[in-house]
């Protein structure tokens, strides 16, 4: 709760001090001062900052996030309408990241120092370093415009999910590749792995049953952090590909100074991060028996 309250206070103050006027965004270019004053009073924008903040937190306690300044619709409804789209993109991106990252990390750990290992590590470094907006534009131009394989923008079937999902998941895949390789190299040198090898167990069984689960703790941290950010709405990716998710909703609200929607999306993002981190903490104990034993003792 203190974290959520702190995030909300900071975002509230930032929206107030940033240039721009939500009332002017609503009334347009043709307006008179009396109309502006009426709208300010109607939206409680004429009240002092501390009073408005108190009213805002009071409404949150009652479960009311208010209505959008622009559309007039409830903020909760605005977010819930965009949430399924964000879930589709987040799950797709994480599936790409985990499958590609874990596979390449395991493969490179089996051939350390080889040309294959060095090539994948260079590509992983490039994937971590490349900005999301640059990767998205390259994918859009190459696969969507030049080759014409996939639609460059829009929302619809699975063909519309692929480009934004790969764009969003590429950085995570690169991080997971590097972490999995490092953790697997450390795990493969442990005594219990040599014991399993001495028993002439199949190599795939040693990797999947013994080495991989004990190498997943650092990887799980990245998965949890990135998935939390995906659920919160990938602002750049959704904006580049015209994906109607929570991130694009938040960006539009910031641009139009739609305070209730901004505060609602910030609250949603903070709650998503906290929930995902809680799930990750629980999974630590499920994956690593040593942590279960420590907690039991």
TrEMBL record:
The chain crosses the membrane at residues 87-111, 123-149, 266-287. Residues 83-284 form the ABC transmembrane type-1 domain. Its main location: membrane. Keywords: Cell membrane, Membrane, Transmembrane, Transmembrane helix, Transport. The keyword Cell membrane applies. One of its GO terms (biological process) is transmembrane transport. It is found in: Cell membrane. It is a multi-pass membrane protein. GO terms for cellular component: plasma membrane. The keyword Transport applies. This is ABC transmembrane type-1 domain-containing protein.
């Amino acid at each position: 709760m203190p974290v959520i309250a702190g995030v909300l206070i900071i975002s509230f103050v930032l929206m107030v001090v940033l240039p721009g006027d939500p009332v002017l965004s609503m009334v347009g270019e043709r307006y008179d001062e009396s109309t502006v004053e009426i709208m300010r009073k109607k939206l409680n924008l004429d009240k002092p900052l501390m009073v408005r903040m108190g009213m805002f937190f009071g409404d949150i306690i009652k479960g009311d996030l208010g209505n959008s300044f622009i559309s007039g619709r409830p903020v909760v409804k605005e977010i819930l309408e965009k949430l399924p789209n964000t879930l589709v993109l987040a799950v797709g991106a994480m599936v790409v990241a985990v499958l590609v990252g874990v596979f390449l990390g395991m493969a490179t750990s089996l051939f350390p120092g080889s040309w294959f290992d060095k090539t994948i590590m260079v590509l992983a470094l490039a994937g971590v370093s490349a900005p999301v907006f640059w990767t998205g534009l390259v994918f859009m131009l190459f696969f969507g415009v030049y080759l014409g394989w996939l639609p460059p923008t829009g929302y619809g079937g699975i063909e519309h999910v692929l480009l934004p999902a790969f764009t969003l998941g590429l950085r995570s895949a690169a991080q997971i590749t590097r972490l999995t390789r490092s953790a697997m190299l450390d795990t493969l040198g442990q005594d219990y792995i040599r014991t399993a090898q001495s028993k002439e167990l199949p190599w795939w069984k040693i990797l999947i049953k013994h080495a991989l689960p004990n190498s997943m703790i650092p990887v799980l941290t990245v998965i949890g952090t990135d998935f939390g950010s995906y659920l919160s709405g990938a602002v750049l990716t959704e904006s580049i590909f015209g994906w109607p998710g929570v991130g694009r909703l938040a960006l539009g609200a910031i641009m139009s100074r739609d305070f209730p929607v901004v505060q609602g999306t910030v609250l949603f993002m903070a709650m998503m991060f906290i929930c995902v981190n809680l799930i990750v903490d629980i999974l630590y104990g499920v994956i690593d028996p040593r942590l279960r034993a420590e907690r039991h003792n």
